[in-house]
Amino acid sequence: MFSTRRTFIRHSVAAVIAVRTKSQPLVEHPAWRLSSSSTSTQTSYGAAIYLDHNENAYGPSARVEAALNLSFRTKSNRYPREQYDDLRSRLARFHAVGKDQVLLGCGSSEILQMAAATLISAGRKGCLIQASPTYLAIGERARAIGANVIEIPLTKTYGHDLDQMLKTAARETSPGLIYICNPNNPTGTLTDRFEIENIVTKLPQNFFVLIDEAYCHFVSPHSAYASFLDKPLNDPRVVVCRTFSKVYGLAGMRVGYAVGQPDMLKRLEATCLRYGVATPSSIAALAALEDSDYVGAAIARNADARQEFMNQTNIRMLRAINSHANFVMLDPLRSAKMVIEHLKNHRVFVMPVVPPMDRYIRVSLGTPDDMREFWRAMDLLPPTGKMAM
Domain segments of the chain: what residues? Predict the structure, then answer.
């Protein structure tokens, strides 16, 4: 529910007081008290608040922390052995596929780099077709190997323009790859599942599809969305990748994975670092998969934080794109670069401007204390009419 008129007045008064005194915090909203056991240390004014990498600000579950502590004492001196294979086997059972249909990587970014190196034929002017804007890793890798990267602007509703992607692919004669990040980073928006299925069925045989589901856990039930791992599409050209960096809170452990047909994954595996996922990382990921209660709580907490972010946005009469992830694209109605610099001066870090959406700033959802500090800094901005555009 959005904040009431009375809440609006209370927050507005608090914001004015904060601007004038530069010391008083905003009036606390009940949603900010969802958890008092946050592992974040960025809570006091003057300490850095990192809202730039879409991390889980609460860290992993206590169960995962216990497994990590044990692994550092007993396993960190050994190369990955059974833990690596155990994680592949557990992921295969989790997604009801064969073990040979799972490939591990150092975060999903390594999976994307494998796909760029393997599925795009740079020597024959192969191409990568992706949205603009979208997650940068695969495009950067494709350019580095000399492939042609074709960027298709998002639709007016910030979804992937699949029709244009299909038309572009139809003109290509060399093997290529279509990358679909869903929900999309940095916009947090969805592309309709039915439309993705439709493009796959019509796609030329020389094209593959990589679906990045890094933020899938944060999507509230939606008629336009269904994971391609929860509801697989029977097409050998489709690879789906996920990560333990987001909902599981293991960004620093660097664990990602791909699910696809065995022949496809063998091609990818030829370019990966053998046993690149470290022993403690494998153990942590195994423990995280078993802790479904934590995942459920993290999803609910994120949904509440996302709604409260929209409430605070509306109170200030700013604009934001409706997000299905753990971050929001905010239009501050001022120069985005100047706002980012202002926040940096208050030790609040958000993502740099993303072309072509240079009016927006992308804000990761942090702890209640983090978000209070973000809004406190935002409320210290001059009124829109007094700030250069």
Answer: 5-59+293-386, 62-290
Q: Which fold has domain 62-290?
A: Aspartate Aminotransferase; domain 2 (3.40.640)
- Residue 148: enclosing H or E segment and its boundaries? strand 148-153
User: Are the C-beta atoms of residues 174 and 123 closer than 8 Å to each other?
Assistant: no
Q: Per-residue pLDDT for the chain (389 aa), expressed as one digit of tens each?
A: 334 433 443 444 344 333 333 333 333 333 333 333 344 444 444 589 999 999 999 999 999 999 999 888 877 787 877 888 999 999 999 999 999 999 999 999 999 999 998 888 655 678 999 999 999 999 999 999 889 999 999 999 999 999 999 999 999 888 899 999 999 999 999 999 999 999 999 999 999 999 999 999 999 999 999 999 999 988 999 999 999 999 999 999 999 999 999 999 999 998 888 878 999 999 999 999 999 999 999 999 999 999 999 999 999 999 999 999 999 999 999 999 999 999 999 999 999 999 999 999 999 999 999 999 999 999 999 887 555 44
Check: CB of residue 104 under 8 Å from CB of residue 274.
no
Whether 62-290 and 5-59+293-386 are alike in CATH topology: the answer is no
